[in-house]
Design a protein that fits this description.
mainly alpha; two-stranded parallel sheet; disordered C terminus; 3Beta_OHSteriod_DH/Estase
């Protein structure tokens, strides 16, 4: 829509002239996305939890983290497109949108493990301060360094660890937040889906994907069964692992 509004056809140019020969764009700056379709924070987190890894917390969880639910990210892009179209067709002076950058998040900065523990609780795990083992930051970074050294020796520097790599582990120890006030004032953006609702929907989707990936859940009947199990809160067994 934005491209069509800002790039008239050759016939329109001959008749009325090309008043907007350029393409109006904005830069939407978003953090990590979670929700349906996310294979990292959502799917990987639930998969690790199924192996009992939900009891571990890497770092002291004092730094702030700010992701965005996929539907909130889509909504922000739709508002930006609408604002560009309005700007292109309006002769009134308003806040300029084209050429600007906007940050959008769930607008709920918190510790990374605050979010992950929500995932685990909605998945049925008994996450409490007594059931969580906190791995100190210094030990975490040392493990990452050792893992990289082992990989370097074995693979002669041609391969690096997928998870235990310092550049990734450092993200757990740094504050990463975004100022969304500009998007609120100019685009009228607000997170449409709250964190609790977003996590609940994400966990449901994640379990359905894990069921398909494990060779189960194929066919409509199994998917309905997963939905029923989710509603009654029986997604975990006595051993604390996911039962699909």
């Amino acid at each position: 829509m934005v491209r069509a509004a800002n790039n008239p056809t050759s016939k329109e140019c001959r008749l009325d002239g090309c008043s907007h020969p350029h393409l109006r764009t904005v830069c939407m700056c978003i953090p990590g996305i979670y929700g349906e379709g996310d294979e990292n924070m959502t799917l990987l987190g639930l998969w690790l939890a199924s192996w009992g890894m939900w009891i571990f917390q890497l770092g002291d969880n004092t730094t702030l983290f700010e992701p965005i639910y996929v539907s909130n990210a889509v909504y922000g892009h739709m508002l930006a497109a609408k604002a560009l179209l309005s700007e292109a067709s309006s002769s009134e002076e308003t806040d300029q949108v084209s050429g600007e950058a906007f940050n959008i998040t769930d607008d709920r900065p918190a510790g990374f493990w605050w979010y992950m523990h929500k995932f685990y609780r909605f998945a049925g795990y008994n996450v409490t301060p007594r059931t969580i083992w906190v791995v100190p930051t210094w030990l975490l970074m040392m493990v990452g360094w050792v893992a990289e050294c082992i990989y370097w020796v074995i693979f002669r520097g041609k391969k690096r660890p997928q998870i235990l790599i310092r550049s990734k582990l450092e993200h757990l120890c740094r504050t990463r937040t975004f100022d969304v006030r500009k998007a609120k004032s100019v685009l009228g953006w607000r997170a449409q889906v709250g964190v609790d609702e977003a996590v609940e929907v994400s966990v449901k989707w994640g379990f359905e994907e894990l069921a398909r990936g494990s060779g189960k859940g194929k066919g409509k009947g199994k998917e309905e069964n997963v939905d029923e199990v989710f509603q009654v809160g029986m997604l975990h067994g006595k051993d604390g692992k996911i039962k699909i």
